[in-house]
Specification:
By secondary structure, this protein is an alpha/beta fold. The chain contains 17 helices and 12 strands. The strands form 3 sheets. It has an 8-stranded parallel sheet. Strands 1-12 form a two-stranded antiparallel ribbon.
């Protein structure tokens, strides 16, 4: 009986293989039928058919049907420690799952007999019009996923006309990223708990390079516990010392940008002339944010706001916009979806400043749901990195194209030919 089971398993493997198709696959199935004469023949046949229908990894970016098609390809091509950095969150990654589940708690209410032969998905952010509400959010260390890193993403953003936000811990300088984008970027800033003087140098550099806004991230000030990253790094056979001073990059594991180990390869944290240090005392507070606002001529936005109270304080302090975000589940393990936080953040913002929602956005229906709940725009992170890791610039472009196409399709299906026509009445709690 053992031999029969082994043959059946082997034949099932062949039948499910993309190398066997048409008549060859049919012949293998006939062999399986002869190998399985017992009463479980029918069950086994069903399992075999199911296995043969499992999707195989795409070989070209153009073959993707949705953004999820890029994930398994990227996972195969990205080193395991780097994949752990991208895929993991904090603690048991429960907040990552919550972000996706948050969208599943809403259903759409399509309206009929509305002329949607022309759909305009454009939005205006800080006076700049964009043809799509999908923002390319900051993700650090992008050359860990593809040799061109942020340059490939910037070129894709240029090709598809998306707003791009560059991370403090990017592996490309803001000067090179803006040149590749061919337009101003927003710059995402982390708090350096060690030296206010260096923060000022970074801000001056960002202004001189032509950035159009600063996005200060407030949800990693206390660091985070990235177990998935640490476990993945332990399985990686490579020697981290070849790339990271002091071993595995502490900032990537804890979110503590002030730690100098592993930062020599980060352009935005290096290359400044020596200046007298101005040591910080403690972590950033609203007073620190005010100091940042007084230091720059650029509009300052906050990323990581998830409560009504903090949104109200931001408006009162003259903040120009908010990202309702839990850092893609990588900050605190609140187990609360960003989209669940959105209504109270909007209440605190009072319609006075734009609110961008990010965390778990994977479909056009997710984009539409966020807009219907009141978000000005949405940000994406992991999906475009899946595209980058799988196929470089072409992959990023395809991810952007798919999400934009899906969004415009849902707008048409729901009778909303423009962003302004999307209202709270288009969604209902499931």
């Amino acid at each position: 009986m053992s031999d029969v089971q082994d043959r059946r398993r082997f034949l099932a493997f062949l039948a499910a293989s993309p190398l066997f198709a048409g008549e060859a696959q049919a012949a293998v199935r006939r062999l399986v039928a002869r190998e399985a004469p017992r009463r479980d023949t029918l069950d086994f046949a069903v399992q075999l058919v199911d296995a043969s229908r499992q999707p195989t990894p795409i070989r070209r970016a153009a073959d993707a049907l949705d953004v999820f098609d890029f994930e398994p390809v990227a996972e195969r091509r990205i080193p395991i420690a780097h994949w752990g950095y991208l895929a993991g969150g904090t603690d048991d990654d429960a907040t990552i799952a919550a972000n996706r589940d948050g969208f599943a708690r809403w259903a759409l209410r399509p309206r009929r007999l509305v002329d949607t032969s022309r759909v305009d998905a454009s939005v205006t952010l800080l006076g700049q019009r964009w043809p799509t509400p999908i923002v390319i959010n900051p993700v650090g260390y992008q050359r860990a996923f593809h040799p061109l890193g942020e340059l490939a993403v910037a070129r894709a953003a240029r090709a598809k006309e998306h707003l791009q936000v560059l991370s403090t811990v990017s592996t490309t300088s803001i000067e090179d990223a803006i040149a590749a984008r061919g337009a101003p970027l927003w710059y995402q800033l982390y708090h350096d708990a060690g030296d206010w003087a260096r923060t000022k140098q970074i801000v001056r550099r960002v202004e001189a390079a032509g950035a159009s806004a600063i996005v200060f991230t407030v949800d990693l000030l206390a660091g985070s516990n990235r177990e998935t990253l640490v476990r993945s790094a332990r399985r990686d056979p490579r020697n981290c010392l070849t790339c990271h001073e002091g071993g595995p990059p502490v900032p990537g594991m804890t979110g503590n940008v002030a730690d100098r180990r592993g930062q020599s390869r980060i352009p935005m944290l290096n290359g400044y002339p020596p200046v007298p240090r101005e040591p910080e005392v403690g972590l950033a507070t609203w007073e620190w944010v005010k100091r940042l606002q007084d230091t720059t001529t650029l509009p300052v936005l906050l990323k990581g706001i998830v409560t009504k109270e903090d949104a109200e304080l931001a408006v009162a302090q003259g903040i120009r916009g908010l990202f309702c975000s839990n850092h893609g589940g990588r900050a605190e393990n609140s187990r609360r979806a960003s989209v669940a936080s959105l209504p109270e953040v909007l209440e605190g913002a009072q319609g006075k400043i734009p609110v961008i929602l990010d965390g778990g956005v994977r479909r056009g229906t997710d984009v539409f749901t966020a807009l219907a709940l009141g978000a000005t725009a949405v940000g994406i992170g992991r999906p475009y990195i899946w595209g980058l890791g799988a196929f470089g610039q072409e992959g990023v472009e395809m991810v952007l194209a798919i999400l934009r196409k899906e969004t415009e399709l849902v707008m048409a299906q729901c009778g909303a030919p423009s962003i302004a026509r999307i209202t709270r009445a288009h969604v209902v709690a499931r």
